[in-house]
Amino acid sequence: MPELPEVEMRRRFMESQAVGRRILKVAVIDPTVTKRIGPAEITGSLKGQRITATRRHGKWLFTGLENGRWLVLHFGMTGRLAVHGVDETPPRFVRLALHLNDGHTLAFVDSRKFGGAGMTDDVDAFLATRHWGPDPTLPGFDLNAFREIFAGRSGNLKGILLNQRVIAGIGNLYADEMLYQAGLHPETRAADLEPATVKKLYEAMMTAFGASLAVETRYAELPENFLLRHRNRTCQCPRCGATLKVHRVAGRSTYYCPRHQRKRR
Ligand SMILES: [Zn+2]
User: Fold this and answer.
1) Distance from residue 261's CA to the centre of ligand 1 (Å)
2) Degrees (nearest 5) of the Cα angle 152, 157, 159?
3) Residue 242 CB partners (closer than 8 Å, separation 6+)
4) Where do the domains of the chain lie, and which CATH numbers do they carry?
5) Which of 50, 200, 252, 259 is catalytic?
6) pLDDT tens string 152-193
């Protein structure tokens, strides 16, 4: 499932492939992609418009148009963007296609259909009405803001990090990575965190996002001591040699090292 770094890669793709181009034609190939508003509004809002800007917040991508409206994309589990030329075969599972004036088609591709497309006139209002938490990589978010999301909050760290209304963009993979890098058990209670530990977790989060973006989210190219390289198979912790464990925390398959991420009593 695309998380913050993966959606940031999609934003960069949209920025390089679409901004400055004009949308000549819109094809809503699968009407269920426009869950809330219907194909006619999407087509009417996009057709003929020049694409002017991109924004991302958490796992949401916004693409700005000269009429002031924004195309809103959410990628669900398998959503991605692709570009192909007029003479090229489109990829499978295209849900929405924008034919651009540079001769390319920008496609929203989603095999499992959990993603979706919508429109908004105001990105900030859109985010506010859905009560999404802050995006930790955008300007204005810092260690103090990170501290605030844990202050007075009950529950375990894994559950809090996954809650998009508390902090936006972290999913199962990066939550595990942050906790692994910070040496914290996923079921550690937020109330038990010391200030130095919150700082460690904040730094682990920024390191995880930064390292992943530096390799354009190709996990195999991450440093050896990243959990993202070792998930989905039982193996030794690259930091301490213990056998990694997996069990369900906050309803999700959670990987951790039983030795260097011990549960505190
Ligand atoms: Zn370990």
Assistant:
1) 7
2) 100
3) 236, 257, 258, 259, 260
4) 4-129 (3.20.190.10), 143-256 (1.10.8.50)
5) 252
6) 899 999 999 999 999 999 999 999 999 999 999 999 999 889
